Amino acid sequence: MRTELPNTRPHTSARPSLTPPSLRRLLVQL
């Protein structure tokens, strides 16, 4: 999953506020 996250959102460091919600959504879907 860690490999797909950076690829899907390369601007994670640019928008740290949008990273937590996106990660939670991915985990919920899985």
UniProtKB/TrEMBL annotation:
Q: What is this protein called?
A: Uncharacterized protein
Region annotation Disordered: residue ranges? 1-30
Q: Which domain of life is it from?
A: Eukaryota
What spans are recorded as compositionally biased (Low complexity)?
13-30
Query: What organism does the record attribute this protein to?
Result: Phytophthora nicotianae (Potato buckeye rot agent)
Q: Compositional bias (Polar residues) spans?
A: 1-11
Q: What is the taxonomic lineage of the source species?
A: Eukaryota, Sar, Stramenopiles, Oomycota, Peronosporomycetes
